[in-house]
Specification:
Udp-n-acetylmuramoylalanyl-d-glutamate--2,6- Diaminopimelate Ligase, Chain: A, domain 1; 2 domains; 314 residues; eight-stranded parallel beta sheet; UDP N-Acetylglucosamine Acyltransferase, domain 1
Length: 314
């Protein structure tokens, strides 16, 4: 999430009651979770397992519960007892929950020539471009951006909260939801089928590139970036923080694990489970997915096992 303007780190420290260690003159430009951090960002970490990853990330400011770690040059620590609660405080300050009072918010902007069905819902600060078709029972949540010539079929939800939890098994409630302050950005000429769900980023943006087409009942997880001219068939499910490059094709019921990269023009055949990043222009099949030509040969040999066994028993 970008702040409206850069914020003095001393002001942030006062907001979350933190001790600043390092450069106290800096300004933060936003807050992000570890998979999408950029220079100028705040990030939080509350487990030793992830200290090094956060300290060596692109983030400039680290909200942490350990003041004794080594501070990389050019960074500052904001030391608090509970970094997760500090993150929540910052998010709720800059992007508080605002109840809806009407079906289409007065703060939304709708482009010329766009059709919005009577039962669609458009949240606060949404931007919808020109010549779009937003069909019945579509929900577009706060701060999302829809480009020009976009079609969204009935029952789709754009901008639902991320399925992302802070986990601590030493407390009564193990999973505490991280407030989602990211957006969904849909570029021009995208078509989205019926009953799809596209989660907003936890703190960055989930985005769908120009010309991409989604079939019915497709799910796109938080902070996932989909490139241009991709094609996803029905019931594809993509986990959080995945990068899908241009021209990728995912056929029906493909599942993709988190934080992977699906390389340009790669194809995944139906009912495959992708656990590793793909290579450009190659086809994949199976669960776990492997190159389709290799997997097909495996199936040929599997079918021959009864014959081989019979010969061995003779």
């Amino acid at each position: 999430m970008r702040f409206p303007s850069p914020v003095a780190i001393t002001w942030i420290a006062e907001l979350i009651k933190a001790e600043v260690i390092g450069d106290i003159t800096g300004t933060a430009t936003g807050i992000n979770e570890i998979h999408r951090v950029e220079a100028g960002d705040l990030v939080f970490v509350d487990h030793p397992k992830y200290y090094e990853k956060c300290l060596n990330s692109a983030a400039t400011f680290i909200i942490i519960n350990n003041p004794s770690v080594n501070i990389p040059a050019g960074k500052a620590l904001l030391v608090v007892d509970n970094p997760f609660e500090a993150y929540t405080t910052i998010v709720n300050h800059f992007r508080p929950f605002t109840p809806a009072t009407q079906v289409i918010s007065d703060s939304s902007v709708i482009g010329e020539g766009t059709y919005i069905a009577p039962t669609a819902f458009i949240g606060h600060h949404v931007i919808v471009g020109r010549n779009c078709r937003i069909h019945a029972n579509v929900t577009i949540m706060d701060h999302c951006i829809i480009g020009n010539n976009v079609v969204i079929q009935p029952g789709t939800v754009i901008g639902s909260d991320a399925f992302y939890y802070n986990t601590k098994k030493d407390r009564e409630v193990w999973y505490k939801r991280m407030e989602s302050c990211g957006r969904v950005i849909i570029e021009d000429d995208v078509e989205i089928g019926a009953g799809c769900t596209i989660d907003r980023g936890v703190s960055h943006d989930t985005s769908i590139g120009r010309g991409t087409k989604l079939d019915n009942q497709v799910h796109i997880g938080h902070d996932t970036v989909v490139g241009r001219n991709c094609l996803f068939a029905a019931q594809v499910g993509i986990a959080g923080a995945v990068t899908v490059e241009d021209g990728v094709v995912l056929w029906g019921q493909v599942g993709v694990n988190k934080t992977l990269t699906l390389a340009k023009d790669s194809v995944v055949l139906a009912q495959s489970g992708v656990r590793l990043s793909t290579e450009p222009g190659k086809s994949y099949f199976g669960s776990p997915a492997e190159e389709a030509s290799v997997k097909m040969k495996e199936f040929v040999w599997i079918k021959r096992i009864p014959q081989i066994w019979q010969k061995l028993m003779q």
